[in-house]
Structure formats: structure tokens, C-alpha cells
Amino acid sequence: MNNHAQYPEKTQATYLGRHILAEFFDCDSNVLNNLELIEKKMSEAATACGAHIVQTCFHMFNPHGVSGVVIISESHLAIHTWPELGYAAVDLFTCGENCDPKIAYDFLKQAFSSKSGSYSELRRGMLVSPDLVQKAPFCIKDQIEV
Amino acid sequence: MNNHAQYPEKTQATYLGRHILAEFFDCDSNVLNNLELIEKKMSEAATACGAHIVQTCFHMFNPHGVSGVVIISESHLAIHTWPELGYAAVDLFTCGENCDPKIAYDFLKQAFSSKSGSYSELRRGMLVSPDLVQKAPFCIKDQIEV
């Protein structure tokens, strides 16, 4: 079992991970176009939600826009920004019982000064111990305005 | 407008991107535990679906399991593998009109010899030109067994 596979006991949750797909609108465009700041805030969000950073990988587009990923022992955080739209698409995928991606969502919504954030949450790797059940990810929270 | 922000004309699609969240079960565990092969197949999947690779970032866990991301001009492809479960969680997020993440899904299902693959597809960055509409990602295809 690798570090990101701290899958739950039979008596606990029946899935490997939680995946929050966040939409941040009305953000500070200068923040969204700052590679160093985006990487710093994404890394801080990972730590804040209880994750352990393994590797980071960020890229600045020309003329503007940042894409990047923080690989964590518990899965990953990813971001793509459109400064010209004040929009960022963010993924917060964490496994195990010790991370809460919603904490990273709240941290980043504030970091980007987003006036309009929302997200969907899906579960990944559904298990019915001791056997696996093959299911697509499914929305457990949809259209949540926070 | 950066490279990954080839957002549609007013007359075309009203969202920036498509995000396929795939669940690959009953995979070849030896493939899922081979970092070089996983990186190669993820990169080939990106190219196959019409994307342009910007950066790759992969990590091998101890004792087993691979996590990695291919950052593309059109967003990203990500993977986390649990060889001990024969399971891989894969994200295929592409923007613009020139990529089809379903092609990457089909490519990887075969590459991992998955006997049971399924996915959900969400849309990201909904637009109602000329103004943005703030919406959470939402499932347009759910529980698809392919």
C-alpha cells in the first residue's frame, strides 16, 4: 500500500478519496497571473488541508495564465487560471482520512479574493470491502455556492 | 488569452473545458506499478487526444504506486495508481475545441488492460458570452460503463 493509498477500514468510509472540483470566479487577476504566488498558495493549501507535498510542477503561459500541480502523498491539487476572465479551475483530490479538501477550497477562495466560488465534490475509488465495486465517480455535492 | 484558454466563440460551446474523471479497475498491476511506462502512456494519451504537452511530473511511491501529471496547453492529465488493488484514478481535463478527452480515456483503458472502466464527465468554466456565469462543474455524463 503506497502513501496515497491509506484506504479506509471496512468500518469506515467506502471510498479511497474525495475530489473537489472548484470554480473560482471574480478573482484578483493579478494573483491569477503570478506564477510564484500561485505555486506558494497551492502549496500552502495542500499543507493546510493536512496533505504532504511530494512534488510541484507549475508553468507560466504567454501572454498570461498559470497551470500547475502539487502532487501530494494523498493525490494532487491542480490549478489552471484565466486572468483575463478572473477565473481559476481548481482540483483538490485527497485520499485517506487525514485530509479535508474543503479546507484547501476555503483557503484558496480567500487567497484568490474570489467573490464567487463554487464546487462539486465527487468520490473516487469506491470500495465495498473486501471487494471493489467498479463505479464512476459521482457527485455527492453539486452546485454548492460557498 | 493564454494557450490553454482557447475558449469558444459566442456561437460555440458555452464552457471552457471538459473534465473526464475515470475509474480504471481490474488493471494490469505490473503496468500500474511501472513509473516509466505510466509516464509514457499518459504522454501518448495526451498527444492522441489532440493536446500539446508542456511539462510532465511523475513520482514513484514506496513500496508501490505511481502518481503523475501531464500539464498540457489545454489543461492536464493526472493519474494515481493502486497496483495492489488493480485500480487507477485518472483525470482528463482538456480545454478548447481541438481535444477530445474520451480518446485519452479509451487509449488508457487499453494501455492498462482495464477490464472495468467507467467515467463521469463534467464541464468546467461555464460561459454565457459575453458574461460569465458562476456555476459549479456539473455532471453531463454519469455512471458510464465503457
Low-confidence runs of chain A: 7-13
- Beta strand count of chain A: 8
Specify the oligomeric state. Answer: homodimer
CATH topology of chain A: S-adenosylmethionine decarboxylase
List the main descriptive attributes of the protein structure presented here.
homodimer, 146 residues, alpha+beta, S-adenosylmethionine decarboxylase, 8-stranded antiparallel β-sheet
Quick overview of this protein structure:
The structure is a homodimer of 146-residue chains. The first copy, chain A, contains three helices and eight strands.
Plain-language structure description:
The structure is a homodimer of 146-residue chains. Chain A has a single domain (15-145), classed as S-adenosylmethionine decarboxylase. In chain A, helix 2 runs antiparallel to helix 3. Chain A has 146 residues and is of the alpha+beta class. In chain A, strands 1, 2, 3, 4, 5, 6, 7 and 8 form an eight-stranded antiparallel β-sheet that branches. In chain A, 20% of the residues lie in helices and 45% in strands. Chain A has helices spanning 29-32, 35-48, 101-111, and strands at 15-25, 53-60, 66-72, 75-82, 87-95, 116-128, 131-132, 138-145. Chain A has three helices and eight strands. Chain A is globular. The termini of chain A are far apart.
